[in-house]
Amino acid sequence: MNLLECEPPIVIDTGSLNTRVGTGGYEKPEVTFLTSSLARPGTTPINHGIIQNWDDLTTIFRKIFTTDVKQETSSTPVVLTSTSNAPDSQRIKLAEIFFETYSTPFFAIENSCTLNLFGSDKKTGLFIEIGEGITDIAPFYEGFGLERGNICSKLAGLSVTKYLQKILHKNQKMYIDNIPSLREIKEQYCYAWSDQPPAAQEISTGRINLRLKDELAKCSDFLFHPHMFGAQAKGVHQMIYDSIMSVEAGMRGQLLNNIYIGGGATLMKGFKERLDIELKALLGETPFQVHVPEIFENTAWFGGSIFSSVDQFEKSAISGKEYLDEGASAAYRKHHKQFTQPPF
């Protein structure tokens, strides 16, 4: 079966927090649900980009193909997002599931930063995806992935949520073990930068009632200066700087002027402004430009949607024939090929 004979591709973005599913070629996913909502109590399907429980993950895929996708799986190509720290063994097992369980005709696993490249319609830039469990940073130059500049860190959205938990325990003498409630406080009230002095706010979520002030600004500090709080990690701005400095000097100027941010943690109010301030402190008078994508939410899914609609998809995807000829190891070959050939 060739691609023209297939149903429209399905794009699946399964992260530590949310799973997004939709038809390729569209701006938004049709279905979004908590990844943990289908997990057994006490289990986490994905943690920091690594699959922890394959039974839970296959339950998610079963739900997608029996409830969300109204197409015959044997004629439906699939794009699945991944993180740069995912081991080859994980990619191989995912290929086995989709070909042997669902008989998909074409299957592609792509890094979220690579997909953000497609979503931005750019060939050169530094792409940062700050999700719930992982921060991925990847530079591209004229469509080539610059692998030595790739950085993957566990400093991400969940890190901020847990730090908020810690400072509330210290300042408010209240220990909140409900992570969804803490996440709600973080997303609705916390901010990374403001031109106004801190103001106290009355916060109510579920059974939790608080009056917060400085805590609303402090929790974002963990993303930029984690060492100040005892964490063995570099701040987001430092990782961006290190990534750009790791590539050839002649490429750095274009990368500095094409820094693209995405992922749920970047939705925090004032995030771009704070990142500008922190990068300015590192770079001095060296010019740079941080860009916010037009499709600000679901950036990796949207990039996958664009990717599934262009010629590169057929070149990057594993076909059913390739799987029959090579087995799931084709996933390894196709993944590593992206660093030696441009995606355009």
TrEMBL record:
Matches recorded under SMART domains: ACTIN
Q: Which InterPro entries match?
A: Actin, ATPase_NBD
Please give the family membership noted in the entry: Belongs to the actin family.
Protein's UniProt name: Actin
Q: Which gene encodes it?
A: ACT1
